[in-house]
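Sample pair:
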Amino acid sequence: MPHPLLPALESLARRVADTTGFRVVEAQIQTHRHPCIVLVQLRTGDGGDVTLDDCAAFSGALGEAMEAEALLSEAYVLEISSPGLNDALVEDRDFHSFRGFPIEVRFRHSDGTESTRAGLLLERDDAFLHLNVRGRRQRIPRHDVLAVSLTRPSE
């Protein structure tokens, strides 16, 4: 169950991102750590990768905004990063960049059950996600795909 303050954090992070030229990819509040961790992943406004200096600048701006709005009353650690390996593939840019990489796809069948399939990413078009599963091309209707993530190659 997501943290009840997550929608407020996402909204605030997106407002700060809009004013600083970044785009929020994901926000999380991880309460299983003490102090809790507020994690925000971002990209540049044009969809590019961010630098360490970008993360530091955004951290300062978001940290000030969080304090001004008193978003969290408990102690927290603010971590700003860019999406990396083992993260979900979401945007067209991700699917283009990681062609040929091993992925795991979680998808829904027409009867409502869910499955996962592992293979190599071939492409994603308007209708299907295409992957290579043991040398055979598999197509999963794009509207049935729930999540796609990078995995480590099996040996």
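The helical segments are 6-20, 52-69, 92-97.
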